[in-house]
Fold this protein.
Amino acid sequence: MSIPALGPDIPIRLFEVEVLAGGVTILNRVSVSIGAGAPTILIGANGSGKTTFLRVAMGLIRPSVGSITWGGRETVPPARRAILFQRPVMLRRSVAGNVGYALAVASVPRDQREWRTDELLSLVGLAGLQARPARRLSGGEQQRLALARALARNPSVLFLDEPTANLDPAATRAIEHIVQEVSASGVKIVMATHDLGEARRLAGDIIFLHRGSVIESGPADAFFAAPATDDARRFLAGELLI
C-alpha cells in the first residue's frame, strides 16, 4: 500500500464539544487533540459515547456546542477521511465489485481500478476471492472487505468503530494485523474498542470515555501502567462503571 501524504486533517482537535440528542447529552464538554502517529484507541463501556465521538471527528455530526478543527481549520472536506462502522453493509456484488465501486466513488481513474482492487484485496488477505459474492463471505471476511473499501479512498485518517466486535480470535487477529500494517504505512487510525486486550496491543495513545466525558487521555503505556483517575483504575480492574 502506498504511503499517503499527511493530509490537511491532522491534528484533529475537539474543543468543549457537546452533542445533544432529544435532550440527552451524548458528548459532554469534550476537549482533546488527536495527532499523527500510532493508533489512537477509544475505550469505554457501551453507551460511553465512542461512536458519537468517531462521527464527530469524521465530520458526520456537527457539535451542538463547541468546535472541531482539522489541521487548524474548521471547514475541511472529508476527502482524506474514511470511516468503517461496526456492521458494514455488503453491496450485492462480487468481492472485486465492492472494491471497484468504492474506487469509482473515490474518483480513481477506470484504468487503475483493476490493479488497485487487487492491491487492496491482497492487503486485507482476500486475494483470490475477487469473484465470490460479497454477501457469502464470513463475518470476518466481510469486515476485511469493508476495510478494503474504506482504504479505496486513500485516506490519511481512518476511523474504525469496534471492527472486531463479535469476531472469533482468528478473525480478530487478522483485522488487528491489517490495522497495524495500515498504521505503519502512515495512515492515522482512530479506533473504538471495548476490548482492553486489543487496546493494549494496538494503542499508541488512549482516550477513555465515560458517560460522554473524556476521563483520561494520553500515551497508552502510561495509562495502563498508572491510570490517573479512580474511574480508569476501576474500569481496568473490570468493575462496572455507572
Q: What stands out?
A: The beta strands are 12-21, 24-34, 40-43, 65-70, 81-84, 157-161, 188-192, 205-210, 213-219. The chain is about 35% helix and 25% strand.
